[in-house]
Amino acid sequence: MFFAYLGGIVFLIISFLFWYKFIYSPYQFFKKFGLHSPPTVPFFGNIFDIFKLGSIYALEKWSIKYASINYAYRYYIGAQPYLAVLDPDILKEIMIKKFDNFTERKKDFGFMTEIRKKANINSMLLFMNKQDWKRTRAIITPTFSTKKLKMISPHIERSCDTLVEIFSDISRKNNSAELWRIFGQFSMEVILATAFGCQVNILKGEENSLTEAAIGIFTPNLYNLLSELCTQIPFSAKFFGLFFAKRLKLTQHHSTARNFIFQVINQRRLQSYNNTNVDFLQLLMEAKAEDDQICPGSKQLTDEEIISVSLFFLLAGYETTSNLLGFTAYLLAMNPDKQDKLTQEINNYYQCNKDSSLYDAAHSIEYLDRVINESQRIYAPGSMTFRECENTCTINGVTIPAGCTVMIPIQILHRLVEHWEQPEIFRPERFSPHEKESHHPMCFMPFGAGPRNCIGMKLALMEAKMCLTSLMRKYKFERAPDTQVPLKTRIGITQSPVNGIFLRVLSNVF
Ligand code: HEM
Q1: Is the CB of 195 under 6 A from ligand 1?
Q2: pTM, rounded to two decimals
Q3: Would the CB of 312 count as within 6 Å of ligand 1?
Q4: How much distance in Å is there from the Cα of 31 to the middle of ligand 1?
Q5: How confident is the model over 324-368, as pLDDT tens digits?
Q6: At what angle do helices 179-196 and 457-472 cross, to 10 degrees?
Q7: C-alpha distance from residue 330 to each of 171, 179, 333, 479 (Å)
């Protein structure tokens, strides 16, 4: 009898502790500071709304209902507390002025961490902790200087030439074509060439072990869904990781890519006397932090670090850039007057600069810059980013507790009616010098902001500008019967078209 009572009491105590630790306590996080959030479900927080509506749309709904003061509102993903901030002045404090208190981004994506561990790949730059990030970023920043990017631009020009040939075939057929897939092949070809000096012809259908692995990493499948789920449900990443990570094709693709890069590094080290490679891998092998950079640890990257950094370039640069090109083509087709203006500007430039290189042309046409900015404002390819708060602080009346993840909804900021007149309209003139002054700089951040912004920004812009300049000299895009209007997009961390982008391509040259 005594033992039955004792057992009952122990059971009650354990149940109470379980309830307190996992069901009650995590959701008191904001309440302790007198702040509100939408109603939560134990273990899941607010993820059902996110699954039902999509993250950005759920945030839009909450922003109307819960953005109490200064356009900031709170929610939970699993048990992790989030604060979404829409106020540009607060964002300036977080991303720039108080950067030291908001240096880290977000805990790693659970399931992908397990996959990378199994594939022997180090932590990615995106999720690095403060110390590791400071050192790594200081070493690799010079790799993205204008001079070095110009050195690798011939790789991009080569793929632009192939793309022009492909578009010539499409224009002759006079049917619509799915351009998003073609821009995807283009950007994969460019990133493999610029990152690893790998001369592949993906646009012409050729493959090798690295391209197969790279394509495999980006092909959506059940496991991607699983990994999405694991980022939301607490403790599930370890659980699923234990059972699946070793057996997944995705892990094999990561291993193949890793081993490929490892072999290339070894070969280059052996042939160091006649090494003429001009690509990121080579630049990373030679990269060294400047002497005046305060960074603890070695000023050079180890081979394992080079592998994880260069692999991350592949992940970060592929989808975002192809989405940018696809969205821009769609917006130009839907706004023929803006497209004509761009073509005119490109032709004018070449009339005055007949022997200009593609690199120089792409960087001299101001209207192209405005078109690309406006395209990214309407469809931000990187639709959100994050910062972790290290120490509790209050900014413009909003308390941000330590341990809280600040969510920066880039796509929403780009369309706020308070800051953008008729935000749904494509008008590149918004970015002309005199109009540019009229909007808050923090309301336009396709590449993030502050010291932890996108390191690949100049590369992405160089690629997009060179690609559009070479295409628009010869072709124009036109709306076809199967063009989806309005375009449906899928918004996660990145934004992509749900059903591709179907357009006609017509020759400009008669
Ligand atoms: C149109 C193309 C691209 C877009 C829209 C884009 C957007 C972004 C955004 C929004 C962030 C987060 C910034 C922040 O938190 O403030 C980011 C981070 C990053 N991006 Fe990009 N990106 C693009 C292309 C690239 C390319 C081509 C590369 C590399 C070759 C790259 C490498 C990175 C890296 C390494 C980070 C993490 C930086 C850090 O934590 O220090 N991105 N990108």
Answers
A1: no
A2: 0.90
A3: yes
A4: 34
A5: 999 999 999 999 999 999 999 999 999 999 999 999 999 999 999
A6: 130
A7: 16, 9, 5, 8
